[in-house]
User: Which sequence fits this backbone?
């Protein structure tokens, strides 16, 4: 059994290229769409290679049960869920330890970007559904959620962009796919508000040196800025004047 | 080559001089260029200009002297105020808004009104009815019952968004019959049009009674309401397109 943080026998970097032929700092093919769910106030689909996530936003809306209401500000609720067919072996449907944790970190990465004080006693509900998983699902979900929030007309300080970086075969790489995620040495998920240069999520598995850590953060920041430009473009395209 | 040159010269001559002047001014004062393209869509967190003593209006926030947008919207910037009009969003009640609401429950001393918002409005008895009503003997559903549609005004909104409505307004009335449709509240000004031009066009073409609420609820009564709904939904969908009034007029005259 191969554990995270331990070197695997599997060769993930061959002739200076990654398993899928990408350069170390190259992101996978990214596709973004907004307004994909009719019934939601705002929605978005983001695809990073084979990882597909759809996010839908409902609200601000009246919050029930009433004891959860806060007088001074609204609350943000996030649900991250993986579809049973999103992975090779069927995932048993419903919440589990992993999705509860990711829901929480996704919420924390998003709520600092929102003006929740504008909606006392109300809630904003974000639903992230992973339809196909091939590594970096939480960051794909956060990117989709951020687009959906902007599309829903929720007041925000900045868009939130997320990206995964990691150490694979001793090399610092960006946007890990499924194999690199499972067999790599280290993986780190970072979410940030690129306009403000603020990091709102940082999670890491594995062991790195201080120098490597700094390189990881630098690469993640650069990658997030690339994603930020894509997010801006896709939102503006929706309202292109014709 | 010579022909092309001549053509270019011709085109230059045709250009109105005012455009050239504007370009020159923009070069000299690049900060004005930002304001002139203010009709472009801005995104949350996008820098929209320096404060320079102006009022920070709706849909913006500032960090020091820099002003940013809160919404995906269209900036409205002038020498006194900086605003961003969101392209989409839920209705947040504000004092003096004229809205269309649906009675959601009848209480002892008033009514709760669904105003298509995260918050419900309360219509007190004294604000709802002019007559003296003995609450011990009278059931208030006699005046407004659950699911009745009313056009009313928001009279008060507290900091924690407790909302009070009133019928003491010349437009306030109970609406009988008809149907309601819900559109994005941010599109209501576009549906009404400049000085009510757009809504008047629809009213005249379809001969329907239409009441628009600032909360995005529109009440329609008449034989040709399908056409009216179609027109309103088209405006909502294509509100960011220029020359929409002509398109709607054409659509109504054709169909």
Assistant:
């Amino acid at each position: 059994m191969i554990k995270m943080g331990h070197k695997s026998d599997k060769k993930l970097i061959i002739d200076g290229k990654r398993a899928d032929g990408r350069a170390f700092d190259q992101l996978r093919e990214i596709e973004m769409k907004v307004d994909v769910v009719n019934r939601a106030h705002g929605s978005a689909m983001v695809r990073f290679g084979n990882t597909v996530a759809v996010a839908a936003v409902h609200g601000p809306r009246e919050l029930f049960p009433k004891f959860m209401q806060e007088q001074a500000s609204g609350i943000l609720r996030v649900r991250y869920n993986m579809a049973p067919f999103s992975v090779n072996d069927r995932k048993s449907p419903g919440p589990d330890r992993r999705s509860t944790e990711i829901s929480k970190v996704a919420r924390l990465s998003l709520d600092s970007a929102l003006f929740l004080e504008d909606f006392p006693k109300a809630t904003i509900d974000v639903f992230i559904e992973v339809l196909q998983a091939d590594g970096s699902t939480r960051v794909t979900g956060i990117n989709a959620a951020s687009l959906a929030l902007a599309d829903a007309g929720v007041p925000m300080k900045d868009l939130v962009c997320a990206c995964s970086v990691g150490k694979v075969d001793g090399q610092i790489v960006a946007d890990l796919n499924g194999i690199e995620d499972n067999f790599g040495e280290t993986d780190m998920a970072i979410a940030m508000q690129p306009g403000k240069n603020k990091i709102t999520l940082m999670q890491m598995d594995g062991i790195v040196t201080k120098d490597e850590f700094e390189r990881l953060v630098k690469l993640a920041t650069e990658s997030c800025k690339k994603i930020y430009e894509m997010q801006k473009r896709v939102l503006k395209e929706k309202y292109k004047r014709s | 080559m010579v022909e092309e040159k001549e053509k270019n010269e011709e085109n230059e001559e045709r250009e109105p001089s005012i455009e050239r002047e504007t370009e020159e001014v923009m070069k000299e004062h690049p900060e004005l260029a930002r304001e002139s393209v203010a009709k472009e869509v801005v995104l949350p967190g996008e820098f929209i200009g320096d404060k320079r003593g102006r009022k920070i209006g709706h849909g913006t926030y500032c960090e020091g002297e820099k002003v940013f947008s809160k919404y995906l919207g269209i900036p409205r910037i002038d020498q006194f105020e900086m605003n961003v009009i969101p392209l989409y969003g839920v209705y947040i009640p504000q004092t003096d808004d004229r809205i269309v609401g649906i009675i959601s429950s009848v209480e002892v001393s008033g009514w709760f009104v669904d105003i298509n918002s995260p918050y419900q409005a309360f219509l007190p008895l004294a604000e709802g009815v002019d007559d003296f009503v003995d609450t011990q003997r009278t059931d208030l559903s006699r005046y407004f019952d659950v699911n009745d549609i009313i056009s009313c005004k928001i009279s008060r909104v507290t900091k924690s968004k407790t909302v009070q409505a009133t019928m003491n307004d010349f437009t306030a009335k109970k609406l009988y019959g008809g149907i309601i449709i819900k559109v994005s509240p941010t599109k209501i000004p576009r549906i009404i049009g400049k000085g009510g031009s757009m809504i008047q066009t629809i009213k005249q073409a379809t001969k329907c009674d239409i009441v628009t609420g600032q909360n995005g609820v529109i009440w329609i009564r008449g034989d040709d309401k399908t056409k009216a709904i179609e027109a309103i939904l088209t405006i909502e969908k294509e509100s960011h397109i220029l020359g929409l009034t002509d398109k709607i007029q054409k659509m109504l005259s054709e169909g």
